[in-house]
């Protein structure tokens, strides 16, 4: 199956799930309980997340818990040449909506890649081994190419799909947190 078709199918599935807020919240609670109990969470002091759209995994609870625990939260801005840079945010930070429909922080507090302990990588579809199909810009694969910290993803069982070919530039996440434990073999 080609990646564009996979993207379209995944967005439909995620929007369908978003139309059932109780079910989505229940799945998010399962995933968050696994994540917050993890070694990755406990050891990380600086955590990178996106400001999620309505149909994506709601990252606001990750930010809230990070602030409560004194952790630093960073959110990306897209730059030219399909690059990302992460900026420190807090509960009062302001955001602007980009042409991609993503909210980016109004912040000048750039955080270097080497200072980020854990990146929660977004995506539309994930293989059982941690490879992902995103929105198609390649921003995260470029950023992760030389990233030395930990990576993970918050993945609804509806997003698990192995029916696509991994490209040589695809970078898998190290760990998937999902509401259906049987879905994941473990990222390599």
Automatic annotation (TrEMBL):
Catalytic activity: (6S)-5-formyl-5,6,7,8-tetrahydrofolate + ATP = (6R)-5,10-methenyltetrahydrofolate + ADP + phosphate
Positions contributing to ATP binding: 3-7, 132-140
Enzyme class, UniProt record, top EC level: ligase
Domain of life: Bacteria
InterPro entries associated with the record: FTHF_cligase (IPR002698), FTHF_cligase-like_sf (IPR024185), NagB/RpiA_transferase-like (IPR037171)
GO MF entry, a single one: ATP binding
Known cofactor(s): Mg(2+)
Pfam families the UniProt entry points to: 5-FTHF_cyc-lig (PF01812)
Binding site for substrate: 56
Family the UniProt entry places it in: Belongs to the 5-formyltetrahydrofolate cyclo-ligase family.
UniProt name for this protein: 5-formyltetrahydrofolate cyclo-ligase
Gene: fthC
